[in-house]
Amino acid sequence: MQNVMWILLETATNILESFLCIHFLIGAFDGKFRVLNLKKVYIIGIVGYTVVITVLNKITEYEGLLGLIYGVYFIIFSLIFLRGSILKKIFVSILTLICLISTATVSGNILFSVFNGDPMTIYTEQSFERFIFMIFGIALLAYVLAFLSRFINVKRDTLKPKELVLILSVLSISFFIVAILQVLILTENICRENLNLLMLSEFGMILINILCFYITVNLNETHIREEQLMIDKRRSEYNQQYAETVKEQYNQTRRLRHDLKQYAGTVLALLNDGKIDKAREIAEEQCESLSKIETVINTGNDFLNAILNSKLSLAKSNGIDVLCSVENNISGIEDIDLCSLIGNLLDNAIAAAEKCGGELRLIEVKILSVKSRLTVVVRNSIPHSVLEENPKLKSTKQDNVNHGFGIKTIKYIAEKYNGKFDFYEEGLTFVSRVELRRVM
User: Fold this and answer.
1) What was the pLDDT predicted at 254?
2) CATH tag, 231-437
3) Which of 136, 146, 212, 367 could make an S-S bridge to 326, C-beta 3.0–4.6 Å?
4) What local confidence, expressed as pLDDT, does residue 433 receive?
5) In the chain, what are the domain boundaries?
C-alpha cells in the first residue's frame, strides 16, 4: 500500500512538473501554435514530458548529464508546436532546463544541510525527507518559472541574437558544471567540509548565471533607451522642419501673389503700348519660373502637405520624376508620426533614385485609406539590387551615430499603430510598404 501511495505521489509530482514547464514554454511564445490547438498541445506536451521523467527515473537515481534529455525534449516540443524563431526556442528550452536543474539543486542542498544526512537518500528512499524535497522543489520551480514568465513576456523581443547566444553559452557551460558537481556530491564519499564547498560552488554558478542574465538585459535596455531617444529626437526634428516648411510655403504663396500682380500690371501696360513681343517675352519668363515652383499637393493635412511638397519638390529639382496619389481620409495618425514616416521613406527613396541614370529616376507615392487601415507605398528606381548587397538595410553613411535610424523609426511607428512594414524589389524598383491601423 505504501509503495502504491509513493508511486501515485511521484506520478502526481511529475505531472505537476510537466505542467509547469510546458506552461512556461507556451507562455513564452504567447500561446502561438504552429499546429493543433491549446488543449491538444498542452496534453501532448505534459504526457510526453511525464513519460520522459518516468523513464529516466527508472534508468537512474539521479539524471546528472542525462538531464540534457529534458532540454532536447523542450526544444523538439517547441520546434513542432510553437510559433517563433528557432534561436528563441532553443534559448527558452535551455532556460527551462536550467530552472529545473537549479531549483532541484538548491532545494536538495538546503535539505541536505537541514537534515544532515546522506544526500542520496533524498533522491532514493521513501522518506519524509524525500516528501519534503518533492514539495519544496515543485514550489520553488513554480515560483521561479512564474517570475521568469512575467519577465520574458516583457523582454522577449528586446534581446538580440548575439545577446541570446551569449546567455545560452553561459547557461550551457553552467549546466555541465552544476551537473558534474551534483554527481560528485551524490556519488562520491566526500567529507562534510568539502561537501559544503561543492554546494557553495553550485550556488556560485547559479549566481553567475543570474548576474550574467541581469547585466546583459540591463545593457540591452540601456541601448534600447538610447535608440529611443535618438528616434524621438529625429521625430521632433521632422516635426520642427515641416512646421517651418508650412510657414515658408505660406510666405512663398504671398510673394507669388504679389509678384503676379506686378507681372500682370507690367504685361497689361506693354500691351496697351502695343509692345506685344516684349509682353510675350515677359509672360514666357513668368511661365518658365512658375514651372520650377514645387507642385502643390493638397491632402487636407497641413503637415502632410508640407512633407510631400518639400520632399517631392526636392526630388524634382534633382531631376527625379515624381508621381503622387493621396486619399484625403488620413485621420487617426498623429501628425508627428505621419511626418516622420513619410519623411524617412522619401529621404531613402530620393537618395536611392539619385544614384540612377537620368532616364531611370522615378519616385511614386501612394497613400491609401481602407476602413481602419492606412497604407503608405513608396516606389523608387534603383541602379541595382539593394537587398542583395545590404539585406538588413543598414546605413552606409560614415556618421553612424546620427544616421541609421530611418528604418528603426519606420519600425517604431508601424509597431505603435499595430501595423506592419515590408521592403522588397520588383526588378530595378525598390518598394517600401507600411500599413498602419488608424486610431478611430
Assistant:
1) 64
2) 3.30.565.10
3) 367
4) 92
5) 2-189, 231-437
